[in-house]
Amino acid sequence: MKRRTAEPFKIKSVETLAMLSYEERKQSLQQAGYNTFLIDSKDVYIDLLTDSGTTAMSDAQWGALMTGDEAYAGSKSWKKLEKAVRDVYGYQFVLPTHQGRGAENILSQLKIQKGDYVPGNMYFTTTRAHQEMNGATFVDIIIDEAHDPTIEHPFKGNVDLAKLQRLIDKVGAEKIPYVCLAVTVNLAGGQPVSMENMKEVYELCQKHDIDVMLDATRCVENAFFIKEREAGQANRSIAAILKEMMSYSDGCTMSGKKDCLVNIGGFLAMNDEDLYIRSRELVVVYEGMPSYGGMAGRDMEAMAIGIREAVDDHYIAHRIGQVRHLGQQLIDAGIPVVKPIGGHAVFLDARAFLPHLSQEEFPAQALAAALYLDSGVRSMERGIVSAGRDITTGNHNKPNLELVRLTIPRRVYTNNHMDVVVDSIVDLYEKRDAICGLKMDYEPPTLRFFNARFSPLSANGELISEENRLL
Ligand SMILES: *Cc1c(COP(=O)(O)O)cnc(C)c1O
């Protein structure tokens, strides 16, 4: 018999969840214009909107909040955070920022000249925005497999070295200030990069005197996939793997809201002293003193502990295991999802789920709305609504992928919660023909997915026809 595993923690404090009736959820969904971003959190049962800043802190972290040193300069709490980053990630120089994008801003301003190119294994919205605002062109150098949701590849976040070499040959190494390497790749569905690939990228870059800067946001999750999937890594600790990963880079930007197990915070780290000194100047301008950088002393205490807790082998095995617990049950039930299951989220393929809807009927938006209506589970659209419009033609950008993202917060929900999500999705799949498309009633000019409003396209205005109502 296969032995089951459970959460490697017990619960000391509980937060009561809203258990709305079908009618109440329907009302809440209508008020939110069928956009899950606009639903009040008090009306959500299981919130899978994002894993960013939604982590549950440990008793050690809560306890440490009280010891935070709120001195304006030279805070003891900063010393602890700096030491944790040095010990666990191995970089020499560290600067605190209010969150990941604060670090991205400073790095981009200091490294990028107008007309430069910044290659990356796909992009993250804020990372790319900072690169472009400083005059750089982003170039995607991820392997082709990453763009196909049906292909199983153990390291779908890998860099295609030939693509990187071609860019170097074309524009010249002096036009490439750094390679931005994300571990794992959020946009590809939380897909990892192999140790071998990280090493090869670093060696190629060193040959051409190009820096490698990691987007280290989910680096611990990446380390777990290396341990599990890469030859010779199985018996090493996550901490050892992580430190070796970081050694194939010159620095990183970090969002503490993910793999540092806190609700707010971030940092910029590097080994180049000159870059550190220049970065420190900008931290003062944009973030705060270099001994707090936009965080309270108590936040730094919590993050220093979170950084160490995250590399606990049991914690990270459970974290990835929980995402898989959700994803594998959906696969077993024949639900179309992006494969393989990544580190932080499961993505439903809404085109395959609702084949009777055209892309202009917003299938992923409709599916996310239907899931909330059915069970109070909040997910996020990642499809045509998120892709926005082409600035020149004014037409919808039509992405290949029309996805609903189920993102799992760290240490917040039990596997029973995941089972509730599975049951709701399986029921919806059985009645998928009864789910209608949406029309957009209000469209904001930028980042429309946050505030857009919709209504059902059915004759009677119901998203799921009443006779097929599930609960
Ligand atoms: C969240 C995130 C960021 C930005 O971090 P913030 O703390 O939200 O500013 C950068 N890159 C990736 C991959 C992220 O997921």
Question: How is this structure best described in words?
Answer:
This protein has 17 helices and 14 strands. It is an alpha/beta fold. The protein has two domains: 22-51 and 313-456, Aspartate Aminotransferase, domain 1; 59-309, 3-Layer(aba) Sandwich (Aspartate Aminotransferase, domain 2), CATH 3.40.640.10. A five-stranded mixed sheet has the order 2-8-7-6-5, sandwiched between helices. A three-stranded antiparallel sheet has the order 9-12-11. Helix 1 (22-31) packs antiparallel against helix 14 (363-375) and helix 3 packs parallel to helix 11 (297-310). The longest helix is centred in the last third of the chain and has 20 residues, at 313-332. The two termini are 34 Å apart. The mean pLDDT is 95. Bound molecules: pyridoxal-5'-phosphate (PLP). Pyridoxal-5'-phosphate binds next to helix 4 and helix 5. This is Tyrosine phenol-lyase. It is an enzyme of class 4 (lyase). GO terms for molecular function: tyrosine phenol-lyase activity. The modification N6-(pyridoxal phosphate)lysine is found at residue 258.
